[in-house]
Amino acid sequence: MALLSRAGATHGPTRWRWVSIAAVVFGAGIWTTHFVAMLAYHSVLPISYDLALTGLSIVVAVAFAGAGFSLLFLPRWRIVGGAVVGLGISAMHYTGMAALRGPFILAWDSSYVVASIVLGAALAALAVYLNRSLRGLSGAVAAATALTLAIVTMHFTAMTAATLVMAPVVDSGAAILDPSSLAIAIAAVGILIITLGLTGAQLDTHLTLLREREADRLRQHISELEATQAHLAATLAEAEAANAAKSAFLAAMSHELRTPLNAIIGFSDFMLMAQAQLSPGRRDEYVQEIRNSGNHLLSLINDILDLSRLDAGKEELKEEQVAPRSLLEEAARMVRVQASNDGLDLTLDVSEALPDVLVDPRRIKQVVLNLLSNAIKFTPAGGEITISAAMSHDSLVIAVKDTGIGMAKEDIPKALERFSQLDRRLARKYEGTGLGLALSRKLMDLHGGTLDIESAPRAGTTVTLTLPASRMIAQETALVA
């Protein structure tokens, strides 16, 4: 069965080589079974065997097995193939019986002869049917059982059909095998079967290993191809995202740069054309607008350059030991007048007992000023802005909280994007660059910290900055310094 399974897994000449090996093993096996049984048969009459017919019987067995096995691979002829194998068992048996020599003649009961042939063919055909109908181990066991019954039932029914009748000894002149020689022949055939079986098993194991190695190589190749494809897809997605970001950047830049430049050029042209008609107050007003637009343009360019340096990894921190309260007080002083002019109450809630931190004070102050600028811009008159700082799990947490218009939770990621403004109508004097939060988050990342936003519509916004414990300077160290 194993050899036939191997034949079924191959094609062309390789398949027929496996079929031939299976036919030799099976034919020799049933030949050996028959003649071992004949050696076990004890008769009062001396028995020997015709050498030619004995040899022919094994050829018959192998030939019928080969023919039957070949038919097994043709779907419509499988049952017929099983029947041919069964007929081969009968043909081998009766050829082997014809090889008997001694002072007797064989008399046959025709009904038993027919019955033995029919039983052998039917049970062998049943073995093929069971092997195909029942898959797996159960099918193999059922088929093997039916085939064994075909051999045994055919043999003993045929033996029942035979009767030895005494007769004078007639010398036919043919070569004769005595039982001991037959036993040697049977042993030789048995060795052949074992050798072929072991060789087939070894080949099967070798081919299985080769197939598994090839399958492993194929799986590895497929895995590498999939990884390459995934990498290419990711690279393509990154390239498309970079291209989209570049397009968005250029579109936003053209708008953001054009706005203050148009103001500068427009007011300058008007002053040049109508300077004689301008009153001192109107002239000062236009100069102030030009100055404000210039400052806005400078701020935009500075932010873009800062982000470019951060993206390129070329920004280096100039770290100093500073007290958090003094740094936050300075930032609050820089926007207090603007907050007061807009009708906002700015409160500082920072303890003096906080440990010093090792940071780039200009960059941290830039982050806080960005947050305060946003808070002032988006908080209506009468609102409150609070700057607080406290220790939490060995980290310093700075929070800028306002009572402004707030934003929806799903809009927070958009607010952190570059050139993103959720509501331009609320800008006080000039539209913001849309770079403040993106730049602030980059600067916090550079310090090993985080920037988080909590907000809700009409409920205000709280932006939290966290500096890690590694930025804290212990009081003992500070005192020694």
Account of the protein in words:
With 481 residues, the protein is an alpha+beta fold. It has 3 domains: 2-177, no CATH class; 245-311, Helix Hairpins (Orthogonal Bundle); 320-480, Heat Shock Protein 90, CATH 3.30.565. The chain has 13 helices and 12 strands. It has helices spanning 2-8, 12-40, 51-71, 78-98, 110-133, 136-161, 179-273, 280-311, 324-341, 361-377, 412-415, 436-446, 475-480; strands at 48-50, 100-101, 104-108, 162-166, 176-177, 320-322, 345-350, 357-359, 384-392, 395-402, 450-455, 461-467. The strands form 4 sheets. The chain has a 5-stranded mixed beta sheet. Strand 11 (450-455) and strand 12 form a beta hairpin. Helix 8 packs across helix 12 (436-446), helix 9 (324-341) runs parallel beside helix 10 and helix 10 packs antiparallel against helix 12 (436-446). The longest helix is centred in the middle third of the chain and has 95 residues, at 179-273. The chain starts with a helix and ends with a helix.
Give the topology:
Layout: H1 2-8, H2 12-40, E1 48-50, H3 51-71, H4 78-98, E2 100-101, E3 104-108, H5 110-133, H6 136-161, E4 162-166, E5 176-177, H7 179-273, H8 280-311, E6 320-322, H9 324-341, E7 345-350, E8 357-359, H10 361-377, E9 384-392, E10 395-402, H11 412-415, H12 436-446, E11 450-455, E12 461-467, H13 475-480
Parallel strand pairs: 7-9
Antiparallel strand pairs: 1-2, 1-5, 3-4, 6-8, 9-10, 10-12, 11-12
Helix pairs in contact: 1-2, 2-3, 2-4, 2-7, 3-4, 4-5, 4-6, 5-6, 7-8, 8-12, 9-10, 10-12
